[in-house]
Amino acid sequence: MLSRRAFLLSALATSTVTPILARAQTAPQASSGANDGAPTVLRLERRSIEVNGKPATVFGIRQPDGTFGIRTQVGKRFRVRVENRIDEPSLIHWHGLTPPWQQDGVPGVSGPPIPPGGSADYDFPLRFGGTYWMHSHQGLQEQLMMSAPLIIRDARDRADQQEVVVMLADFSFKPPEQIFEELRKGGGMPSMSGAAPPSPAAAEMKGMGQGGGAMTPMPGMAMGGMAAKPDLNDVKYDAFLANDRTLRDPEVVKVEPGGLVLLRVINSSAMSAFHVELGALDGELIAVDGFRVAPVKARRFPIAVAQRLDMRLAIRRGPAAHPVLAVLEGETSQTGIVLRAGEAPVARIPDTAAMASPALTLDLESRLRAAHPLKPRKADRVHTINLTGSMAGYGWSINNVTWSKDVPPLPVAKGERVEMVMVNRTPMPHPMHLHGHEAQVVEIDGKRFPGAVRDTVLVPPGRRVVFAFDANNPGLWAFHCHLLYHLEAGMFTTFRYV
Ligand SMILES: [Cu+2]
After folding, report:
1. How far is the CA of 426 from the centre of ligand 1 (A)?
2. What is the pLDDT of residues 256-294, one digit of tens each?
3. Among 285, 314, 365, 483, which has the highest number of CB atoms less than 10 A from its own CB?
4. β-pairing, 475-481 with 430-434?
């Protein structure tokens, strides 16, 4: 079986493929000459993996030569044909890219899903590089790993640097439909109440606050008297995977002693956030969600669901095995890979860490500065996005509205600077994902700053985070929590302009 390592080694496939039932979602655009030839084919398939010695059937997104996902080059066109080879409808979202809205891959918003046996064509320019990913936006398929890396190389990919991609995932032997049903019924959830959210004051006391920000008062929030411990990890998973594998049999990547590594970590988990632990290696964070930031040096970085981290690592001289671990927030469960420099022995790494990883905070987020921020500009339109709901009945919503097709899109007009003020009024953190635009974090708890340009930002309980973007890609777009079962329960909305 080809491992995901094949992805690292193989170049973009240029196979010629006979289309089955070509069903273009949009009229194919005239190709740009330089990138003529057949589109890259991505097949949605079922495949078998082994998780701690037990077989499991999951999904996969692969090229005909077995390559997972796509690695391409900035400036090229994204010319792709998706072939649905599973027995149910599916549709793939290009997470973090800015395609025309009909090609964004959200069923019922961008267009209909691809029926079994059908295919869909995509063709749009790649204007920026970085670490992205692709995943199904249909039902709960993402939990079964209908996802893959989407890497767009650019000037950051230096010849003297080895690229290593690590895709993190949470795994359960339970079918996702059963997981969701149990959440709905209140079974299998941690010992928590689903009661009122923590007050901002309590959050500050717990050390989750950044300080120095005027917190907007939150009407309806219980003040004090409630433990500030956020509710984490609704789902009890059987395993956490890094490139399909657990630490009982981790991927071991050969690296050069004294060499440079560009480590691209993608959190493709349905529900799980981690701290990435680099051990004795110094990491230089150079991009989040594909976009450059002023470099930050550390040995531990938080990664929420759907986020990506690009880190430069200087491998020490001499043989050594360097584990790159991801420890589940609030728990000791861990997964990871091993970078093996020279002929070093690789020791077995336990799948639990010695110490629990803390809950993710906004400490790093508040320090990140975009290398290329949006032009400073006053917002033309501000939408307040209250993140609402509770564990009781597992109901999640936006502004107390549970998503349905009848919910009107938020209004936006072309050319506007828009700000989404996200206020978390629940006891759970929500990683909020904005589709189709280059969004920038411009405020946390009332404090303005030119933060990271990114597509997914964590809003912890009781916190307020503002995303700004320029309305320069007209259409109907999704905006939602990226925790899969929150999204499924209705923490989802849209915005529209022409
Ligand atoms: Cu959520």
Report:
1. 9
2. 999 999 999 999 999 999 999 999 999 999 999 999 999
3. 483
4. antiparallel
Pick out the chain residues at pLDDT < 50: 1-35, 188-227
Tens digit of each residue's pLDDT (9 = 90 or more) over 413-424: 999 999 999 999
Report how far ligand 1's centroid is from the alpha carbon of 99 (Å): 25
Closest to 227 in 3D by CA, of 260, 254, 256, 193:
193
Residue 355 CA, chain-centre distance (Å), reads 25
Assigned token pair, 349: 């790494």
**Of 444, 450, 472, 436, which is closest to residue 376 (Cα–Cα)?**
450
Least Cα distance to 424 among 478, 481, 469 occurs for 481
* Block residue for tokens 């995943």: 135
Model pTM greater than 0.90? no
The Cα–Cα gap between 311 and 175 comes to 34
Task: Tell me which residues have their CB within 5 A of the ion that is ligand 1.
Answer: 430, 481, 483, 486, 491
Q: DSSP string spanning 394-444?
A: GEEEETTB---TTSPPEE--TT-EEEEEEEE-SSS-EEEEE-SS--EEEEE
Closest CA to 328 of 241, 228, 207: 241
